[in-house]
Design goal:
The structure holds 2 protein chains of 2 kinds. Chain A is mostly beta strands. Chain A is 0% helix and 50% strand. The chains are: A mainly beta, B mainly beta. Chains A and B meet through β4, β5, β9 and β10 of A and β5, β6 and β11 of B.
């Protein structure tokens, strides 16, 4: 099936640890995105990438890092510098045109313990 | 900077009645507008979008939305709501030039509760 796969669905992080969320898409989309969603709030953009080996900071990039070594993969690392990482993380992808729809994965829950 | 407002945190409607979820936007150029729905603990599902052309856009699951440029609004509507329409709805806008990315800016979301 075509789509966007995020893993793991649930992840627990200890204080001071880095964790990496995986995002893979087989839609042949050029652009990929990471959003953060806090309970009762909307989505905020963390990072986005329009092409392989290039990515841009979004509105809340501090404490996060990404890579885009392959077209189909856009992993997000939540570093120990992110002071409040507990949230629902959503990966998305789209073709490059402005009118193209952004499609979302099923999300990953990250909890600090 | 572009922005989206969803003025209602929650909308309650009886099953079979019309459903409206409000959205207003602010952009510097021509807006590209989107509606998504989110069920609990799931990702966002695309419902419909306005790019250009007819102001009335039809989408998935019987939803439609009307683009009103003078009122800068893009309200989501469904003529007859179902209990299964109970979910969180997001309006989003994109107007940045390509060089700045194709990212979406989302509203805060509106929770819809359809009662039997």
């Amino acid at each position: 099936d075509g789509g966007i796969t995020q893993s793991p669905k649930y992840l627990f992080r200890k204080e001071g640890q880095n964790v990496t969320l995986s995002c893979e898409q087989n839609l042949n989309h050029d652009a990929m995105y990471w959003y953060r969603q806090d309970p009762g709030q909307g989505l905020r953009l963390i990072y986005y990438s329009q092409i392989v080996n290039d990515f841009q900071k979004g509105d809340i990039a501090e404490g996060y890092s990404v890579s885009r070594e392959k077209k189909e993969s856009f992993p997000l690392t939540v570093t120990s510098a992110q002071k409040n990482p507990t949230a629902f993380y959503l990966c998305a992808s789209s073709d490059a045109g402005r009118g193209n729809t952004i499609y979302f994965g099923e999300g990953s829950w990250l909890t600090v313990v | 900077a572009q922005s989206v407002a969803q003025p209602e945190d929650q909308v309650n409607v009886a099953e079979g009645n019309p459903l409206t979820v409000k959205c207003t936007y602010s952009v510097s150029g021509n807006p590209y507008l989107f509606w998504y729905v989110q069920y609990p603990n799931r990702g966002l599902q695309f419902l419909l979008k306005y790019i250009t052309g007819d102001n009335l856009v039809k989408g998935s699951y019987g939803f439609e939305a009307e683009f009103n440029k003078s009122q800068t609004s893009f309200h989501l509507k469904k003529p007859s709501a179902l209990v299964s329409d109970s979910a969180l709805y997001f309006c989003a806008v994109r107007d940045l030039p390509k060089a700045a990315g194709n990212k979406l800016t989302f509203g805060g979301g509106t929770r819809v509760l359809v009662k039997p």
